[in-house]
Amino acid sequence: MAPDLVLDHVRLAEGATQVSIAIRAGRIAEVGPNIPASRTSSRTRRLDLQGAVVEPNVADAHIHLAGTAMLADAILVQGVETRDAFCERLRQSPSQLGSDWQWVVGASRALFASLDPAALPSCDEKRRWVASAPDGHGLRLSPGAVALLPDPLRQKVATAGGRVEGAMARDVWRRLPPPRRQRLGPLMVKTLRELAERGIGEVHAMGESVATLRVLRDLARRGRVPIRVYVYLDAHDPEIEAALSDASRTPSTGRPPLVAVAGAKVWLDGTLGGKTAAMRAPYADDASGEPYDAKARLQVTDDALRGWVERLDRLGLQLAVHAIGDAAVEQLLRVSSAMQRPADARPIRLEHAQTVGADQLQRLSGLLCSIQPLHRLQDLAMATPRLGNQRISDGWRAASLAKVCPLLVGSDLPISAADPTQWRAELLGRTEPPRAENERLTQAEVAAALLRDPFTGRLRRVAVGANADLMAHGRGQDAPSPDILIVDGQVRIIAPRLLRTGR
Ligand SMILES: [Zn+2]
Considering the entire predicted model, what is its pTM? Predict the structure, then answer.
């Protein structure tokens, strides 16, 4: 069988000799010094990569796909300081999503704190709006938006005056009518294309709804999905049970689909910005004087977490656990270390690992540590007084985590940029302010983190039998876009200079 695609004059590492790569049915079929024309057919596409280094493409291990797509259509209130100006901005912003409600983002901490939907009737004559907290872990809903919720949630939110935080905010978010799929689908495709242009050939979409999964699968059937999408469903989605058991029945042999369910995501706590991260000791800037109860900040019980691990192990799927505070990390360690899991169980993913005590590091062994390097740059000013001088060195670790658990790297898009060039700079200590010297990665460690398969934690390689998910940068890794990006054996991005030389 002739290959679909042959890449000629490629190197597998800087300085290595040039080889050719043959690709068939989405997989690497051959890597060799020369693939003669006699072994190709008239349907084989042949591209001369002119000595470029070819490597596996990069995965963004943590993004929010529906959220990013909806953001493109949201009303931005950045720079809006007063409630009157907020209402004015709403009045000026036409409804784009064609949805039942409009998403409002970019509120400052001060504006968000001052938003009292019940006191803003003039904003709501015709508009139903839902405003997100600056850190994404709280909502303000106009009375019209509250009315879209099912009972008894509607009554709870109405009683709270449309102001909800933390776990309740996520519950409200998932009960709001989803955006129209005709609008959401193209916006998600646009996001995925933008990621492809940065050399990202795979994303791990976290906490997505079953409704979003349906839209993605529909797009994949129509050949519209440009890169791989692994979905970790929102563990609290009302439809998750059926979706998970359906996913576990999908055979794992053969050509993997571009959109696949990898598992589920569970939230153990909130964020540092919202003071909802579960810390073992009080926040350093907590002046409330109230007694501190770390356990009360955890959003699920140990039993519920254990139940999720067991359920996903049974299904052969993976659990991703949101844990920002060291008490949330401790809960995961406490629960997972006391469990007897099957030998073939998927490693649990620790998402964010933003504060990890020195005493916890060794016990992370067996987990995968999923970090977002650009969060440190965004959060440092807010978090320094919050964590205090003693604890700040527990924040945004990289090198000390890498010694005990395989690092996965991501953006948390739309929270920070999906840009491997920026991730690399941050992890190497080349950003301002730089990360602590003892938490910087070496070049080799960064390369390993970017080449890792976030599902297994293993390094991906250009080898016969591997998925043909490849990328080449002819002008060095820090080039803004790859010269070529191949996903599932298909060329998704190609530089014009390669098109001119290709046959
Ligand atoms: Zn996230």
Answer: 0.91
